Amino acid sequence: MIPGSTPLAETAAKTSRRRHLLDFEGWSRDDVLALLDTTDVMAQVMQRTIKKVPALQGFTIGTLFFEDSTRTRLSFERAARAQSADVISFAAGGSSLSKGESLKDTLRTIDALQADLYVVRHQAAGAPHQIARWTDALVVNAGDGRRAHPTQALLDAYTFRARFEGFDGFAGKRLAIVGDVMHSRVARSNVALWTLLGAEVVLCGPRTLLPAELGQARGVTLTHRVDEALEGAHAVMALRLQHERMTRGLLPSLAEYRQRYQVTRKRMRAAHAGALVMHPGPINRDIELEGALADAPYSVIEAQVANGVPVRMAILYTLLVGSR
Ligand code: ASP
To answer: In this structure, are 129 and 194 located in the same domain?
Structure first.
């Protein structure tokens, strides 16, 4: 069906107005739904014996990871290669950044290699936007500081749509996000996306990890009580304590945190029948999530990782081919 298939061409055309994917600003509900439909087509490709199509032949995708990643980088590279694009990879670790080269000079060097699209992860919020101003290539944000991680939110919403039994739309659905909300770009992007799609989001964590301003958005509520957050939730997402972004001690003790905020099988009983358990990874078992819950039949954590590939295939295809 690829390229030029009717559903793919149609959905890609609908989402072709944006050059970059930096966050969900400027995205409409229909744009997102079209992207999820394109993902369905890509998911079919990933079920074939030969998981490769020529859709992006001739395009070069640069993955620029200034911060560590396992799932996101691998899945973008898989998504690019499954569509026959060439991939050049940059990781800050072994680069001249450690010799003091500035971000701009680093980009200038990479840009000389002439990629058509960059996938950028950076510890500084706004870095992908800055890179988008410096290059003519397209930019996809793969996580910037605590600000945004739009492709993670898209794969979360896609997984929910694909796996929630009897899914009949996002309106009236409730996503509970529990844990270190303060340092989480995943939480911020999911709030933006799920409310755009018409769902409600409940954010839960200790006072020190739950910024009050997030509760100001329409469709979002905050609570410090996990049982209250899980009540009637259709999906429950646990978040890791992101110690690498914490600048001071924000927790009284890990034992108390586990006792008050761990998502457990027992606590899941308050959720809606058929509620799904989600986690963006990496998981710290038995801290934010009861270990056994990660492997429960209603856990879709592995599906989230697997769905990362077709979601990112759809994003690359839509931005590159849709914009031509
Ligand atoms: N992998 C996600 C991120 O990059 C979540 C996490 O690191 O806890 O933000």
So the answer is: no
